[in-house]
Amino acid sequence: xxxxxxxxxxxxxxxxxxxxxxxxxxxxxxxxxxxxxxxxxxxxxxxxxxxxxxxxxxxxxxxxxxxxxxxxxxxxxxxxxxxxxxxxxxxxxxxxxxxxxxxxxxxxxxxxxxxxxxxxx
Length: 121
Description:
By secondary structure, the protein is of the alpha+beta class. It has 2 helices and 6 strands. The chain is globular and about 75 Å long. The N and C termini lie far apart (70 Å). The relative contact order is 0.14.
């Protein structure tokens, strides 16, 4: 009887340990104020964030590293709706990344950054 109880406890612990580590690895939710800063760094003005769809991208893919920003704003002087997926990275925090042939552009709440491979400088 004690062996069964011990096995049951071990089994329960094995089920709980991965869940505890997964929960610890999830990023903190994207805040509306941070989303607004990122959109403004991307050139948007008069930004109003209506909602943040946490954990889902604009195409419906579900993952804790995605957040879709829904709002309205001005871009190049014209009113537009905003549906923009931001991604989480431990080093970049919540960000938008645009890959190009000779580098990448990154926008996050700190602003804008251009990343170039050393050979293209």
